[in-house]
Amino acid sequence: MSKETLGRREVLKRALTVVGSVALLPAIGACGGGEEGLSCTDTAGLSPADVATRTSNAYVDHSQFSDKNCLNCQFYQAGASNQCGTCTVVRGPINPEGYCNLWAAKQS
Ligand code: SF4
What we know:
Elements: H1 3-32, H2 48-56, E1 76-77, E2 86-87
Bound molecules: iron/sulfur cluster.
């Protein structure tokens, strides 16, 4: 076996590993459950003022904080399973994984 052939085999092996890993990503996401694929960004039907409230408070669909999100915010009101919820201060669909500058810890 030549050195060149071994190199090609190694390249092919690594390429197949990468392809296999990429192919498994959706399955891993599905197994993870949660609200990963949930999008709560549709602001159609909201008034310009309500859209402005979302924007000015920097609402995002996925919080950048590991310990702060809409789900543990006192203003969040859960929707049905794997559905957007609502918020008592920010109108429109709210992702439980979302966040905005009005976040306040849920009282327990
Ligand atoms: S106030 Fe902000 S962080 Fe809290 S639930 Fe509403 S949108 Fe989410």
